[in-house]
Sequence to fold (149 residues):
Amino acid sequence: MKKKQSKKKTQNKKKKNYSETTAFSDLKKTSNTINNPKSSSSGIPKYVADRMARRIFFTAGIPTILGMSVFVVSYIIVTRNIAEIPPSSTIAISALFFLLGLAGLSFGILSASWDKEPGSFFGIENIPMNIQRAKAAFKPATQNFEDKS
Fold:
């Protein structure tokens, strides 16, 4: 059996002192070799995303805010004895605004024009074309899934 080394022998070994430049030189070499992602991607262009965000704000944001404000207005009306509002009607009106906001979310995404110049105000003519784009985006994923089964 080998004897254990004494603490003195392990402490007497000299530690290597590295300067900052040599200590991090390997790190700098590896960080420069990182590949930059391709600048052209198949995602949504920024001008289209901005257009979608504006449409979503108006068609989904405003009805959602109204859906939340129904509770506040109903509370104020009931507590000040202006009118007696049943809770079921408060919930129904709020749900109607939330459903309108959900429809507005879909409309805001599907009605945005993908051209450089903005389309019409409502963008209804862009909806069928954007539905086809969405179907085409999911088609390769479903084909790969069917091949594996």
